[in-house]
Amino acid sequence: MRAALDLYSERGFDGTTTAEIAARAGVTERTYFRHFADKREVLFDGSHLLEEVLVGAIEDAPENAAPLGVVDAGVATMAAVLEDRREFAGRRAVVVDATPHLQERELLKLASLRDAAAGALRRRGVAEPAASMVAEAGVAAFRVGFEAWIATGQDRPVADHVREASAALREQAAR
Amino acid sequence: MRAALDLYSERGFDGTTTAEIAARAGVTERTYFRHFADKREVLFDGSHLLEEVLVGAIEDAPENAAPLGVVDAGVATMAAVLEDRREFAGRRAVVVDATPHLQERELLKLASLRDAAAGALRRRGVAEPAASMVAEAGVAAFRVGFEAWIATGQDRPVADHVREASAALREQAAR
DNA sequence: GTCTATAGTCCGATAGAC
DNA sequence: GTCTATCGGACTATAGAC
């Protein structure tokens, strides 16, 4: 993973071959593909951990709490996990933003996060389309907040940015 | 485009080669790649048209209309464009839902739609992060409404489903 | 670890429309 | 004369089969 991020940063995603990543990591190309399904996946390894945090937060929330509040709290918790990895997250974000192929994979991971959150809400009794829309809103706040955190040089906690994004949506919905 | 959709429906996306698509359309493989950047793009050709509809609707809205209302109206208009193509849209949705590679591309197109809407809102003076969040909410309503339309056999207008999704989010935001 | 199919790029040639 | 469409061959890297 480190070898890949370094190479993608140095030469760009398209300018890097899987053989080069494998060589820098000291393994063969076949071994690379045994660990990661494709050339992109190497940058998305920890994403299922975030999903567990979000789903867990939704499941553990008080029974009759408002769905949007539950999800907003969950995504803020999830964001806080990234606070410790700010350097890796920042370098990774630069590469992803520069590469459409990586953006696609990132969006698929966010969609998986959103589906998991919507499922957890439905299990709490939230009906459709409310469950899907609340999940979308939460993941959107996470994404927008994360981007602002990266863009502003990470001087404020990422969870603050995320909460600011969800507050902005609530305000607009009330107009 | 017809050749590709037919083949993807018959044999699946992975079971179809670009050479086969080209052959069925009566051109060479090289010609296929001059029209479409890759194997996926052939199913996403009209998407920039939807973007124009949405951005146009946002630009033409009354000056001090509420941003979320403007975007909701815009995505409902955009959805209505698909009403005429319900058969193509339905067949296409089946293939996309079955194929992660195509889902990724679909998500990228939705992200492009979202960025275009956020940009149009900023030009109207909406600040961040409100502009991004309102754009996310609108595109989410479009996606959720479209899926419900496909899932229910298209017996009600797609724009109805989209409006129902945005109404559900407003309701949740008020709790 | 070996072998192979296929997606996708780069080079260039040709030909009709206006 | 320029624009745009088709086509061909050779090539490389990704990714899957075994």
Structure description:
- Chains A, B: Pfam families: TetR_N (PF00440).
- Chains A, B: This is TetR/AcrR family transcriptional regulator.
- Chains A, B: Keywords: DNA-binding, Transcription, Transcription regulation.
- The structure is a homodimer of 175-residue chains.
- The first copy, chain A, has helices at 2-11, 18-25, 29-35, 47-60, 67-83, 86-97, 100-123, 130-151, 158-173.
- The first copy, chain A, has 2 domains: 2-41, Arc Repressor Mutant, subunit A, CATH 1.10.10.60; 44-173, Tetracycline Repressor, domain 2, CATH 1.10.357.
- The longest helix of chain A is centred in the middle third of the chain and has 24 residues, at 100-123.
- The first copy, chain A, is mainly α.
- In chain A, α1 packs across α2, α4 runs parallel beside α7 and α7 packs across α8.
- Chain A contains 9 helices and no strands.
- Chain B binds a DNA duplex (18 and 18 nucleotides) through residues 17-19, 27-31, 33-34, 37-39.
Q: What labels would you give this structure?
A:
homodimer, 175 residues, mainly alpha, Arc Repressor Mutant, subunit A, Tetracycline Repressor, domain 2, 2 domains, DNA-binding (chains A, B)
Question: How would you summarize what this structure contains?
Answer:
Chains A, B: This is TetR/AcrR family transcriptional regulator. The first copy, chain A, has 175 residues and is mainly α.
